[in-house]
Structure formats: C-alpha cells, structure tokens
Amino acid sequence: MSTVSSLSAALCLSLLSYWIVGFSRRRNLPYPPGPRGLPIIGNVLSMPKSHLWLKASEWGKDHGNLVFVQCFGSPLLFLNSYEDANELLDKRSTKYSSRPSLVMANELERWDWLATTTPYNDALRKYRTYIHRFFQSPEVLDYKPLQIRETHLLLNALLDDPKDYAKHVRRLPGAVIMMNVYGHEVTNENDPVIHLADETIRIVGDVVQFPILDLIPWLKYIPEWFPGGGFHKVAREARKLSYAVRNEAHEQTKERMANGDERESMTSVLVSENILEDGTILNEGYISAAAAATYLGGADTSATTIMTFILAIPKYPEIQRRGQEEIDAIIGCNRLPSFEDKEQLPYVRAICTEVLRWESILPLIPPHFTTEDDEYKGYFIPKGTTVFANAWEMAHNPTIYPEPHDFKPERWLGPHQPLRPEKYAFGFGRRLCPGQNWAENWSVFIAVASLLAAFDFEKARDSSGRFIVPNDSYDTSFDTWPLKVQNYTKVIEGCILDSKFSRCGFWSFLSSPSGDGVVE
Ligand code: HEM
Question: How far apart are the C-alpha atoms of 118 and 102, rounded to whole Å?
Fold first, then answer.
C-alpha cells in the first residue's frame, strides 16, 4: 500500500473515531471550553513540541481552568486548578485513574509492565501494594541510616570534586533505591545496574520521536522496510532493554539469596515470601516489575529535586544564610543534621517545600485516563479522555503564591499558609506517587539540610572573577507526544557553584574514611 493510501486509511479511521466520540456525547451537555480546532485533526496543529504545560496555562487564560482539546478525535482535558484536579482525580478516582494506551511505548517497546504507564488494573494494584509496603514508611526496610550514609558520601564527593556536582547528586537517590529494592550496593560511578536503568530512562524518553503512532495507531502495521517504518528497529532495541532492566538486577538478587549473601531488600523479602515448594516464585513478574518501576520512578525525580535546591540557593544568598543560621543554632558544629532534627528546623523544611513548588519537577502530572463518561460543572467529559493536571499552573498561580517565580521559603512559615505543593506535586488519587513519603519526608530533607550545613554555595566565577550566570534550563527527558509527559531531569549545565567548604570545619570528618558525620 502506498504512503498516500495508508494515510488516507488512517485519516478515515480517525474520522470514524471522531464521529463515534461525537455521537456518544450526551447531546444536552457541551464539552468543557477550549480552543477551536479544525475538522478531523482537531487541535493537533496548536500542540507545541514541548512545554505543553505553558500552552495549557495560556489556553486557560482564554477558556478558564478546564481546557478541552481534541487530536484526531482523541479528547484531552487540562486541569489548571487544584480544585478541579482534586474533585476529578482524587474524589472521582474510580473514573479517572487509568492511563492512555501508548502505542510505541507500551505495545511496541513493551514498557507495559511499568507502573507509570500501566492502565488501572490488577497488576498495577499489586505493584502499588508492594511499593507502598516498603517505601511508604521506613519501618519495613529502615532506609533512614542508608539515606544518611549516602548523603554523607554525596558531601564527600562534592568536597573532592565540586565541578561534577550533578553526577554526585544523581548518585544519591539511585544508590539508596538500588539498595532498598535489590540489596544492590552501588560502589562506583560505572555501576552496571545503574547504567542499565539510566539507559532505560533515556530510551523511554525517546518515545517522543514517534508521536504519530499514538495519533494514528494503525501506522504500527507498516513494515520496517517501508518508508517511515524505522520505528520497528528502535522498538526492537527498546524491547531488549525493557526485558533486561526488569530481570537482570532481580536475577542477581535471587543469586545472592541462593548464595546466602543477601541484604534485606524489597525483592529479597517478596521473593522469600512467595517461593513455592517446587522453587517457583508466585507473582514473580509483578515483583520484578514493581522493583524496576521504583528506580525508574524515583531516581530522576528525587535527584532533580535536590538539583533544584542547588540551582536556587546561589541565587538567594540570604536564604542560604538564614538556613545555615538555623542549623548552626539547633545543631551546632559538632555533627551533621539527622532526621531527628527535622521538627526543630522549620526554615529548612520551608526551603524543601519551596523547592517542590518553585520549579515543578513534573509540570504536567502523567496523564490520567477516564474509564467512564462523566459530568462536571455542566460539561460532559467522555470516557476515553486523557486528563492532564497542570501542576505548573497550580504552582505558579499568583493569586495563591504572590510573585510565584521567586523562591520564597517564607511562604511556608506561620499559621496562614497557601496551598501546599505536596497536594499536587506527587499526583492524585489512585495514581498518587507511592514514593512520596520516602522522597519528601526523608530523602530530600536530609540532603538539603546536610548540604546547607556543610557548604556555602555560590555562583562560580570566570577567569576575571565575575560571577557566571547559571544556566537554569531544565532538560526534558520523558516526553511522550501528544501526551507530553514532561519530566525534567538534568537541571543545570555549565557552572553553578563554587562549593566553599568553609563551614564549621566539617571537612575534617567528612573526608575521613568513615564519613559518619560525627566529629571524633
Ligand atoms: C520528589 C520526588 C518525586 C516526585 C516529585 C514524584 C512525582 C510523581 C508523580 C507526579 C507521579 C504521577 C502521579 C499521578 O499520575 O497522579 C508519580 C508516580 C510514581 N512515582 Fe513518584 N515522585 C517522586 C519520587 C518517587 C520515588 C522516590 C519513587 C519510588 C520509591 C517513586 C515512584 C513512583 C511510581 C512507581 C509512580 C507510578 C505510580 C502509578 O502510576 O500508579 N516516585 N510520581
């Protein structure tokens, strides 16, 4: 079949689905407002290549907080306000908790086992139960000492090699998660398990190259030799990776267990509990999928949060000073912060909260998908609508947060605080991030408090001694068009800090081999 006839067939199919959606619409209720689209293709031409959240905010200015668009008959709804997201995604989560089907990612590359892309089904409920059990509170795995140890390793690495700060920061959550999930110890920067997982994150991000397949799913049938069939090769490579990332570290954990060399982890506990008399493991596929999804969901997001702190702090020396004064007054100079200090460090906690708001780590919450028709505020929301909560717009609404682009921890002090970013930054309803507690309450806090305690951050200078303006653009790493799940990863390129290790003389014990954070 020629390309032209393929496209005509695809357009006919799209027209049909457009017609079906229109037909099933309840005649007495309109769709929510939105920009006018063209026949058949709808709003496809208005969809930006990146930063869809900004476009959704812009549409919101003209059409209100609910914005409805269509792409080739597929309905998309943007929720620009927390109230609407809370009402639909939290309170009506029975209807709003699935995920849209992704042709390239799920069908061809076989990432369908990944929690973030799985529809709301039994497998997802299993994954979430597992992750919750081990990550929701530190009681099961007692991950706090490990977080402290890895944070101290980060401080040491920054001391030795401040220029590579991004690499050191990235290691921190990755190493803790690998230990929690597999009992795998990350000993150096060339760790093969981390390398495989990071490669996976990159490849999943590359799905963006083939948006057309999600728009016109029928195109997946064109053969590899046919013009435009290059996606088959990419999908083949990705399938290998999908298999490897789910199974390799899992198998290594089983090997360690067989050799009596296991360290307690999510995988080792679940495998032991599910082993049958004949040696097979009940639910093994779910166990390996949940474990792999944990790293993929938690490493980049947590690292980006800490990087955002490092980006903010040299721009606001006054905030750095105030945070350090609080730490010095409460903790003094003889030890580094511990989790027990958290209650007594309100300003440091306020910095962590502002980090979560200031540069929304996931500006568009990964899309939810409706599994039933719904009515809301007099509008009709059809089954099969892809729903995006626009966390960026929620976090930068000037009526809630005056001067929203400024980094102001003070917002989070005192009795009358605005809407807290935890309410939307970790998503909604039945898809709420299962790593929220691990990240927010433990990992990010201890990293921020320890970095403040140990370092003075300031902008680097050029050879003439002038401050270099940090490059604060974020990389978008995971981006599935037209769904545009944008997940910032690497934050700052080029210079950002001269970490002056002048604070309290902590260097004397940090650079000691134990790095245990207590001055002898
Ligand atoms: C500051 C760090 C983090 C942020 C900002 C964050 C944010 C999010 C968001 C917005 C979602 C989508 C929720 C939704 O669809 O409504 C999500 C899902 C998810 N997160 Fe996190 N996350 C973070 C850390 C973590 C950590 C540490 C883990 C693992 C321990 C993790 C594992 C997951 C998983 C597995 C999902 C998929 C859940 C599902 O689709 O049902 N995340 N996260």
Answer: 10
**């299993």: which residue's tokens?**
126
**How many angstroms separate the CA atoms of 348 and 330, rounded?**
11
Residues 6+ apart with CB under 8 A from 169: 154, 303, 306, 307, 310
- pLDDT for res 379: 97
User: Is the shortest distance between the CB of 301 and ligand 1 below 6 Å?
Assistant: yes
State in Å: Cα 296 to ligand 1 middle. 9
Segment 454-493, tens digit of pLDDT: 888 877 777 787 777 766 666 654 432 222 223 333 333 3
Which domains can be identified in the chain, with CATH numbers? 27-503 (1.10.630.10)
Ligand 1 neighbour 395 (Cβ under 6 A): no
- Residue 293 in contact with ligand 1 by CB distance below 6 A: yes
Give the N- to C-terminal CA distance of the chain in Å, as an integer: 77
For 245-272, b where at least 16 C-beta lie within 10 A, e where not — what string? bbebbbebbbebbeeeebeebbbbbbbe
Pairing type for strands 74-79 and 386-389 reads parallel
The total of other beta-carbon atoms located within 10 Å of residue 501's CB is 18
Please give the distance, rounded to the nearest whole angstrom, from the Cα atom of residue 98 to the centre of ligand 1: 15
Pocket test for ligand 1, best of 127, 301, 437 (most atoms within 8 A of CB): 301
pTM: 0.88
Ligand 1 touching residue 302 (CB < 6 A):
yes
Q: How far is the CA of 438 from the centre of ligand 1 (A)?
A: 10
Q: What is the pLDDT of residues 380-393, one digit of tens each?
A: 999 999 999 999 99
CB 477 within 8 A of CB 484: no
* Mean per-residue pLDDT, 62-81: 95
Burial of 415 (0-12, 13-18, 19+ CB in 10 A): exposed
**Mean pLDDT of the 32-54 span:** 90
Residue bearing the CA closest to ligand 1, atom 26: 298
Supply the pLDDT for residue 26.
Answer: 59
Tell me if 427 CB under 6 Å of ligand 1.
yes
- Tell me the one-letter amino acid at 384: G
Residues tagged in the binding site annotation for heme: 433
Location of structure tokens 């399938």: 239
Ligand 1 atom with the shortest distance to the CA of 89: 16
What are the contacts of 236-239 at 24+ separation with CB within 8 A? 237/203, 238/108, 238/109, 238/110, 238/111, 238/203, 238/204, 238/206, 239/108, 239/109, 239/110
Contact assessment for residue 426 and residue 389, using Cβ atoms and an 8 Å cutoff? no
Q: Ligand 1 pocket, 298 CB below 6 A? A: yes
Work out the percent of the chain whose per-residue pLDDT is above 70: 84
Q: Single out the residue of 293, 296, 265 nearest to residue 140, CA to CA.
A: 265
- Position 473 scores a pLDDT of 66
Q: Is the CB of 367 under 6 A from ligand 1?
A: no
Cα→Cα distances 239→98, 108, 366, Å: 23, 8, 22
- Between the CA of 425 and the centroid of ligand 1 the distance, in Å, is 9
